Every structure is written in structure tokens, then in C-alpha cells.
Amino acid sequence: MASSLTKDPVRPGTPGTGTTFFGHPRGLATLFMTEMWERFSYYGMRALLPLYLVAPGGLNLNAGTATAIYSVYVSLVYLLAMPGGWFGDRVWGPRKTVAVAGAVIMLGHLTLALPSSGTFYAGLGLVAIGSGLLKANISTMVGHLYDGPDDPRRDGGFTVFYMGINLGAFAAPLIIGTIGENVNWHFGFALAALGMALGLVQFLLGSRHLAARSSVVPKPLSAEEKAGTLRKAAVWAGIAVVAYAIVGFSGHYTLNWILVPLTLLGVIIPVMVLVNIKRDKELDRPEQSKMSAYIWFFVAAAVFWMIYDQGGSTLSIFADSSADNTVLGWEFPVSWYQSVNPVLIMAMAPVFAWFWLALNKRGKEPSTIVKFASGLVLVGASFFLFLAPLSIADGGHKAAAMWLVAIYFVQTVGELLLSPVGLSVTTKMAPAKYASQMMGVWFLAVTAGDATTGLLSIAGVDLNKNGIVAMEATLAVVAGFAVWMYRKRVKELMGDVR
């Protein structure tokens, strides 16, 4: 993407003075491009993943196992964002953590490109670890570019940064998906590795434009803490190696020995984190009250993401087997559906921002709770809409591509109502003691939702059946109405947060 480089005559002495990127610190261009290429590699591989898992020329798994693997993978990416942020804060500092993360992601994609089922799962693990390391730390470095939270350019800088996410997410399925589906699956994964390599190279070359504090470890581990952490990690690693060695040598090993523990962790860890914060005696009464309100938002968000993220698995597998993937007689790769959401986000996000501002000026902007409830109802409505193409397929016909586009459209509108509000309310309701950790807690809602999908798939539930889809849709709509009906109570618990 072409950059606009100008001289900034304003704010001497603040980060990013001198040459600027669309009026923002020059380092934003470095982080923008890094995030764009990382998202290009991530979403390109993710678009191919469920299709490769079920393809006769891929791993040729059944739809349930493929959905479970996909869901576990996505839940791990978000679960690992918390330890990734911890590494940036306590061990390497954000800049080094992002550099290491980029190398791990690239290595993961290269491992996926090897034509072996054994190395495939190792590659998935590497990409998940690298994405977790990168996710929290690169956003932190964007904040470092500005002169504190009151810098008027800060919000605009994050908006530009998130455009990089959506540009990468939009382009990836069109390029990587086409190569993977039409040429060779492993060439597609190799192309994802190339994308991450480009992002890593430009990050290393452009890191001189980043704020100096991005190289600082904010709260380094003491020698005692480091020794204790390594000791605990070695003990748990040893237990895992011994346990899986026993299972393997006894001839009882199956893929579920990996999938089931990971999905259970994806549900248990979010619950444990919330319980730990809620039971902290150091929190005062207002903070305790806000955490009680936040649990409502968290549970509702987990339901939302459980359905929303099936757009990359359940819907993709349905499109592969039961949809007429053509426009005016021209057939397109199934992975292209994954470009619908990012292009809609880029088109509609400015409209939503303008709309909320216009309503706010008239004193009619919906409350946080109403927006959140509406997002839940809409994601439920998207799965009620999914019943139509499912019924068409049950009748022996191919469902039109526009049915799926309509589902993605409704889900995107729901996302624009719920996701920005969730991020905002997380920062506003965070107890002071957990201010830096709460964004990771928000990501755990995605982990819990995807892990639930994984557990359903492992249990043999066919997520492409009318009854199951209707049940999930009803759950989301009921959850949305529950949040709305109890909005006064939740508002009381939120205290001074609006």
C-alpha cells in the first residue's frame, strides 16, 4: 500500500515527529505493514484449513473432525494472547517478542507446506504460538508511538492500524485461497510463509522508527521468578511427555488425545481467570460490581463468537459440498467467501461510526448494553438464515452463493455492533490492578466460544444439521434478549461506566 509521507511541523519532541505516515508517527507504517502481512498469512492459511482437512487430496477427514481441529486452532490463537502479552511485559519486551513471533509464524507456515500429516499439526501449533506472541504486543507498540493517551492522533492511529488487518484479511483468501485450491494446497501454505517473511523483513528494517520504549521490558522477571517459571514449565512439560509417551507406546493414541485436553482448557481457563479476578479481595466494591456486570458481557460474547467463527468452518465446509459457488456462471474458489467479511468491515465501519455520532448529537445513540444485545440477536438471525440453504441442500439442490453472502453480511453487522463495544467496555470496566491484562481476558471470550464448538464436534454433533443450527440460533437470540431484559440491573452493576 502506498504511504503518504510528509513533514510534521507540529508537536516537536513527541514520538513520531519528523516524517509521518498519513499524519501519524512514521513507525505506524512499520506496524501497519507488519500486521497486514501477518494477517495475510494467518487468514490465507485459515481460509484453506477446513477445506484442506476434508479434501481427498488433503487429510480427507470427516467434517466433524475438521471443525474440531479448526475450532481448537482458533481458540488456541486467542488463548495464547495472554501468555504472549506476559512475555512482552516480563521477558523480551514488545519489539523482540514481535520479531520472534514473526519468525515462529513463518516457520509454522513452512512446516504446513511440507506434504506430511505429521508435520501439519506441528505447523498449526507453531502458527498458533507465534500469533499469540504477536497479537497483544504489536498493539502495545502502536500505543507507544503517541504522546500518552491524550494524544489526539491516537484513536486515528489505531483506526489506520486496523485497516491493515482488514486489508490483509481481504487479500489473503483471494490469493492464497486460489493457489491452494486450484494449484496445490502446500503451495498455498508456502505463500502464507512468504507473506509472513515479507512482514518480518520490513519490521526489522523499519524498527528504527518505533518508540524506544518498545524495546524495554516493563517489568522484568527477577532471578528467582525466572528460575521458578522455568522449573514449573519443565515439570508440566515432563508430565505431558511422559503421559503421551505412555498413551503412544500402549497403542491407544488418537487425535482426540490432543483435541479433547485443548478444548477443555479453552473452556476451563477463561472460567478460572474470571473467578480469580472476581474473588480478589484487593478489589473495592465498585470494581467488584463492574466485574459482575462484565461477566454478563463475557458470557454473551462467548455465545456470539461460537456462532460467528463457524463462518470459517461450518459454513466453509457447507459451501464446499453443498453450494453453487458461481456468480453469473463464473465459478470461484470456496475460500473466497472468507474475503466477504473484511471487505464489508472496511465498507461499513465508517458508516457505523458516522451513524453513532449522528445519533449521539441528537441524544439517541443506543447504550452499550443495547448494542451488545443487538449484536447477539443478529448473529442468531444469521444462523436462522442459514436454515434456508441447509433446507435447499437437503432437497438435493445446490444452494446459491448469495445465501452465504447474506449470512456473512448479517454476521458482520452483528460484529460491528458487538466487537468494538466489547473492546471499549473491557477497558472501561477493568479493575486498576488488572488494567493491562483485561484485553487478554476479552480474547478469552473468543477462546471459550471456539472451544465450545470444538467440544460439540468432538462429541459427534453434526453442526451442519438443521436442528443444531436452529438450536444455536435460538441460544444467541435468547442470550441477546436476556441481556436486554436485564439491562437495568447490568447498568446498575456497571456503576459510572456508560
Automatic annotation (TrEMBL):
Primary location: membrane
Localization per record: Cell membrane; Membrane
Membrane topology: Multi-pass membrane protein
Pfam families: PTR2
InterPro entries cross-referenced by the UniProt entry: Dipep/tripep_permease (IPR005279), MFS_trans_sf (IPR036259), MFS_Transporters (IPR050171), POT_fam (IPR000109), PTR2_symporter_CS (IPR018456)
Transmembrane domains' residue ranges: 67-86, 98-114, 120-138, 159-179, 185-205, 233-251, 257-277, 289-308, 336-357, 369-388, 400-418, 439-461, 467-486
UniProt keyword Transport, yes or no: yes
Presence of keyword Membrane: yes
Record region (Disordered): 1-21
Keyword annotations from UniProtKB, A to Z: Cell membrane, Membrane, Transmembrane, Transmembrane helix, Transport
Family named by the database record: Belongs to the major facilitator superfamily. Proton-dependent oligopeptide transporter (POT/PTR) (TC 2.A.17) family.
UniProt name for this protein: Oligopeptide:H+ symporter
